[in-house]
Amino acid sequence: MACEKDTKELTQENKTAETKEVKMEEIKTQEGVLVLKNMPEFKMEAYDAATGHYTEVSSEDYKGKWTVVCFYPADFTFVCPTEIAAMNAALPFLKELGVEVLAVSTDTKFSHKRFVETEPLLKDLKLTIAADPTGEVTRKFGVMIEGAGLALRGRFLINPDGQIVAEEVQAPPVGRSVKEFLRQIMAHQYAYKTGEVCPANWKPGKKTLPVNTDIEPMTGNVGKYVTLEDLIDENDVKEMEEMLKKFKELNV
């Protein structure tokens, strides 16, 4: 009976929490999670590949802007140049969305310069790569691999209010998807500007959820606003089938 009572009380608490108006700036997340917290302050030396010169970057430079801070383990490695090259290829789209991009590793600015000059994938690089040899900034963002002195693959999206709205952290062996990240940026920008929210797999042209105007009729009734086909369409299914097929062919 006691267990049943506890369950009922928890259910009631959950319902109460869901119906309360939640202000983003009042949310406190657990230690180690940076989402909904302010971007850590920093100042670092850097190499500006667009100009070919050394420079200095600061968190102050990105205030009032959509910003991506992207950590990677090290120069002269293997997955890292592919990620930097992919982000550089997406730079025109990011610029059109008003997004600033800063890459960071624990290498020195001298290493960054030589890395860009020698790695074929980084030809015509336009990104700025910050140097964090002491690991101070890497630790502030919570992505330091202690003992190795290297950063995890951590990627953070910051809104114009200086608030981190998305973070993705991966172990070194696997690179991140720029295409998926671009989708997430557009979704966050849409939600930020309109007050509506974006369902799973949202893309421009897909339906959104007007919680800013229809929160009561939508509660427990989201299926009246979007369908499963809105979330995953035929093209998505085909793409997943093809991806799984090719993965099976690898025999891993």
Key features?
alpha+beta; 2 domains; Glutaredoxin; globular; disordered N terminus; 9 strands; 252 residues; two-stranded antiparallel sheet; 37% helix; seven-stranded mixed sheet
Q: What's the topology here?
A:
Elements: H1 2-19, E1 43-48, E2 53-58, E3 66-71, H2 79-89, H3 91-96, E4 99-105, H4 109-118, E5 128-131, H5 136-140, E6 144-145, E7 150-151, E8 153-158, E9 164-170, H6 178-194, H7 211-218, H8 228-231, H9 234-248
Top CATH class of the largest domain: Alpha Beta
What name does the CATH topology of the largest domain carry? Glutaredoxin
Low-confidence stretches: 1-22, 24-30
Q: How helix-rich are the residues, as a percent range?
A: 25-40%
Largest sheet: 7 strands, mixed
Rg, Cα atoms, Å:
21 Å
**What is the distance, rounded to the nearest whole angstrom, between the alpha carbons of the first and last residues?**
50 Å
> How does CATH name the architecture of the largest domain?
3-Layer(aba) Sandwich
Total DSSP E strands: 9
Main sheet: strand order: 2-1-5-4-3-8-9
Strand content: 15-25%
Structural class computed from helices and strand pairing: alpha+beta
Mean pLDDT score? 89
Q: What is the overall number of helices? A: 9
Order of helices and strands: HEEEHHEHEHEEEEHHHH
